[in-house]
Task: inverse folding
C-alpha cells in the first residue's frame, strides 16, 4: 500500500470515528432526554426526573408545552415557576391541562412573547394565569421609556438551539446529570409540566434552618431595593405596554385571563416600605386596575380577573424561625420572595373557582377593582398592625437590613 493510500485510509478511519462518536453522543442525549424533547425512554430511576435547564429555558418550555397539548399556561417569573403547580387539583377540576411557562428573572415582555408564540402556532390556550412583578415596572428617574421592540422570529423557531441541545458537551453533561440525580430527591429539577419545586431548598433548610434562607434572601433584597429607582415608568413604557398587549391578545382569542399580584411575605413588604416604595406600589396597583378597565372598554369580549395577594395578613405573616432553629418547617414560604406550592394550591383553588365564588371573604386574596382599591390602603394598614403584634422581630429585622444597605442607594 502506497503512502497516499495509507493516508486516505487514515482519513476514512478518522472520519468514521468522528461520525460514530457524534452518533453515539446524539443517541445518548436522545435516549436519556434531559430536556424532555424526544420522549422515547421514560423509566423511573433511570431518566424520569429531569434537571432544570440552565440554557434555552424559554425554547425548551415552549416545546414541552406544545408537546403536552396544554390548554392553560402559567406565565411569570421565579415566584410563579416555583409556587404555582400545574398539577394542582384545581386545574383538573376546571378540565384544564396546565403547563408552567414561567422563567426566573424574566418579566412581562417574555410572557407576552410566549403567549404570541403559542397563538402563532395555533395553540392559543383557554386560560392564561399571569403573575405580575411590581419591581419590574420601576425605571430610573432620568431614563426614557423603553417600548417593546418590533416583533422578530421567536428563538423557538430557530434551528440553533435544537442543534445545541442535541449535539453539544453541555447536553452530554445534562444527560449525565439526569442519570446521576435519580438517586437524589433534593436535586434541582423541573417537572414534566414545567414546575420547579425548589427541592434543593428543602435540603438547605434541613442543614441550615429556614432562618438562614430568609436571612440570606433578605440581605440580597435589601441591597437590591436600596438601589432600585423610586418611580414607575409612564403608562406607555415597555412593561405597561406589554401588559396592555397581553390583555388585547386575550380578548381577541377569547382567552380567559387571570392576573396575579404575588403574595409577598410580610418581611418583603416591610422592606419595600422601609426604602420608600410603598407609594409606588400603591400607584402600580391603581394603574393595573385602570389598564384592565380600559381594555374591557376596548373589547367587551375580554374575560379577566385581577387578583391581589399582597398584604401582611394570614399566611403572609408566617413567623420566621429563629436563628439556630433547624427543626421548625415553614408551611407557606421558602423565604420572603418565594412561596411554597401549598400556598399556591390555596390560591389556585380560589382563582379557578366559579366567578360567583371570587368575592368570598377569607382575608387572603382580593379581586382588585376600582371599588376594592379604595379600601386597599386601610386593609394593608390593618394587616400590618396585626402582623407587628404577632411578630415584631420581623419588622425590626427588615428595618435593620434596609438601614445597613442604605449607603448603597444611588
Result:
Amino acid at each position: 500500500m502506497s503512502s497516499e493510500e495509507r493516508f486516505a485510509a487514515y482519513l476514512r478511519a478518522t472520519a468514521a470515528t468522528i461520525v460514530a462518536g457524534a452518533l453515539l453522543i446524539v443517541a445518548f442525549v436522545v435516549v436519556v432526554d434531559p430536556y424532555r424533547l424526544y420522549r422515547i425512554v421514560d423509566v423511573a430511576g433511570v431518566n424520569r426526573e429531569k434537571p432544570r435547564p440552565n440554557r434555552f429555558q424559554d425554547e425548551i418550555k415552549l416545546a414541552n408545552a406544545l408537546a403536552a397539548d396544554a390548554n392553560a399556561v402559567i406565565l411569570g417569573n421565579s415566584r410563579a415557576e416555583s409556587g404555582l403547580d400545574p398539577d394542582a387539583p384545581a386545574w383538573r377540576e376546571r378540565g384544564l391541562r396546565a403547563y408552567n411557562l414561567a422563567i426566573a428573572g424574566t418579566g412581562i415582555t417574555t410572557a407576552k412573547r410566549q403567549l404570541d408564540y403559542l397563538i402563532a402556532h395555533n395553540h392559543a390556550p383557554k386560560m392564561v394565569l399571569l403573575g405580575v412583578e411590581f419591581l419590574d415596572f420601576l425605571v430610573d428617574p432620568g431614563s426614557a421609556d423603553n417600548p417593546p421592540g418590533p416583533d422578530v422570529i421567536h428563538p423557538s423557531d430557530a434551528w440553533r438551539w435544537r442543534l445545541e441541545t442535541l449535539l453539544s458537551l453541555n447536553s452530554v453533561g445534562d444527560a449525565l446529570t439526569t442519570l446521576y440525580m435519580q438517586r437524589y430527591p433534593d436535586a434541582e429539577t423541573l417537572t414534566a409540566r414545567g414546575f420547579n419545586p425548589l427541592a434543593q431548598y428543602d435540603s438547605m433548610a434541613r442543614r441550615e434552618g429556614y432562618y438562614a434562607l430568609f436571612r440570606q434572601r433578605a440581605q440580597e433584597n435589601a441591597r437590591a431595593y436600596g438601589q432600585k429607582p423610586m418611580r414607575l415608568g409612564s403608562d406607555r413604557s415597555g412593561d405597561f405596554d406589554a401588559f396592555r398587549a397581553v390583555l388585547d391578545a386575550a380578548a381577541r382569542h377569547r382567552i380567559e385571563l387571570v392576573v396575579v399580584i404575588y403574595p409577598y411575605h410580610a418581611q418583603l413588604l416591610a422592606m419595600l416600605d422601609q426604602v420608600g416604595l410603598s407609594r409606588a406600589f400603591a400607584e402600580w396597583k391603581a394603574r393595573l386596575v385602570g389598564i384592565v378597565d380600559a381594555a374591557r372598554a376596548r373589547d367587551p369580549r375580554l374575560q379577566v380577573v385581577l387578583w391581589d395577594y399582597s398584604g401582611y395578613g394570614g399566611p403572609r405573616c408566617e413567623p420566621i424561625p429563629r436563628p439556630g432553629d433547624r427543626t421548625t418547617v415553614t408551611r407557606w414560604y421558602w423565604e420572603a420572595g418565594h412561596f411554597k406550592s401549598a400556598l399556591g394550591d390555596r390560591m389556585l383553588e380560589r382563582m379557578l373557582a366559579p366567578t360567583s365564588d371570587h368575592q368570598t371573604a377569607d382575608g387572603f386574596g382580593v379581586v382588585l377593582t376600582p371599588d376594592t382599591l379604595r379600601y386597599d390602603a386601610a386593609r394593608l394598614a390593618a394587616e400590618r398592625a396585626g402582623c407587628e403584634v404577632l411578630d415584631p422581630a420581623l419588622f425590626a429585622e427588615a428595618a435593620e437590613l434596609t438601614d445597613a444597605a442604605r449607603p448603597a442607594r444611588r
Summary: Residues 279 and 348 are 28 Å apart (CA to CA). Confidence is low (pLDDT under 50) at residues 149-153. The radius of gyration is 24 Å.
